[in-house]
Amino acid sequence: MTVKILVLVILSLNVATAAIYKFYRLLSENDSERFIHVKQFVFKSIKNEAADENNTITNYFLAHGFLNDPILSFVFLDKLFKPNCHLYYMQYDNFGYDAEAYTNQLYDKVSVITKEASKAGKKVENTAISISLGDQIVAPIEEVFDQVITINPCTYNCFINQKYRTIIAFCAPILFALEYGLGWLSFIPFISYGHNYYSITLIADQIYDMKHIKPSESIRLKNQPRKILLSRFDQFLDNRAIETYYPQADIQYVNCEHGTMSDPNDAQLYLLGVQKLFGQSKVTDYPYPWERKVVR
To answer: Which of 25, 67, 91, 123 is 20 to 30 A distant from 195 in Cα terms?
Structure first.
């Protein structure tokens, strides 16, 4: 009996302390943990470069989709980013995903950067680009950006088609129970996909938010002049529901399925689609030398 009680106590402590640490970490992570800040340098001058002429700092805030592969998720857009810009890639965490907490951290980051630029006497141009469930983070604070582009937004539960809403509704409680039942073990990134490893906690939390985040009835959010790129043959999302929810949006379609952007053909289609939404007549083939550096 004593052994059973001891085992139960150990298991209970495992679950309780893991849960406490998870929520503490979500609320306390600093900028270096939540954002990868990359500065793009183009050393050879570019004729009529807007950033130089207008003394403008251009920032891109990039919120990727499912799992956690921030930089690779946006490689296909490299040629659309302005020269000498700042790229802020959002990172998710194997210790837990919470869209609302991430939104607050993104808002704080944008506010600090904008204030610092103003103090330095410079203009700032903030653009947000989100993919899939990354829009859960961007959408609530859309008005703080000068421009928002979202690709296949999985912002709310109703944007997912009926087939996958049913699958998510079935899987979410199972993963939720597994996550908390395993305690600290659920943080271990042992699930391999693509170029990385992910934890049960990350996947369970993302699925949980996909199931539970409901659409806002705010007219302000619905009528935001956002730009949306949709896959015409999307197997996961309900494009009509997205069109209905955002009546004022500029919506473009690409003729492919819900892409991962890892397929070279799909990547090119998405690049051209985003290029249209940006209103750029051509992509930039940067003159060399140019490079990117992670800012510490």
So the answer is: 25
